[in-house]
Amino acid sequence: MSIEKFIAYLKTIENIEEQDLQKVRETFKHRVCKKKEILITNNQICDTVFFITKGILRAYSIDEKGIEKTRIISVENEFCGNWASFHNLSTNNEFIQSLELSEVVYVEHKNFYQLVNSSQSLNKIYTKILEKFQVYHVKRFEFISNLSLQERLQKIDSYFPNLHGRISNKILASFLHTTPEHCSSAKKKLTKLSMNVIFLLSEKLLFDMLTVF
Questions:
Q1: Considering 3, 90, 148, 213, which has the largest number of Cβ atoms within 10 A of its Cβ?
Q2: Within 13 A of 29's CA, how many CA atoms are on the CB side?
């Protein structure tokens, strides 16, 4: 069951007594999400946070030009939500969407803080989860700010290995903060560059073999 997968994840973060685990079971709910289903829209407060046990979710916004910008993509054993909106019950400008047939456990704001404040262990887990989110966003900021588009495409698997082969070119472009057209063009240039490198290496190998004889 999804809730037991979530329990197993929590145990990797902190030792938890059975009575606290039971509280988690009673507070979090299970949900199956269809592919491309919108779980939270940008015209509502994000009063729910999701933990993925199967599948992939993303949080994205649409700018004034109608271009999608994906802030976070979360896979199994990760959370997805707008923590600022969730914590403050403030305006949310993002959509939360399931990119695959997914299974999640989720909790609403009114129940979440009662839960984490009821136990020192659960409060520690919450703090560590927030720290992990902070690390993710620092890494993501560096990825977007310090690398060119071609460098982002070359290094995305090392920065975000769990996304490989799971997202479309359109979603990838929005995650890289570019357009699908620019993303496709950069991919083609990288492919051509790789082919040229292979060709040159092949020529060198052939030359080395000939010189031996």
A1: 3
A2: 10
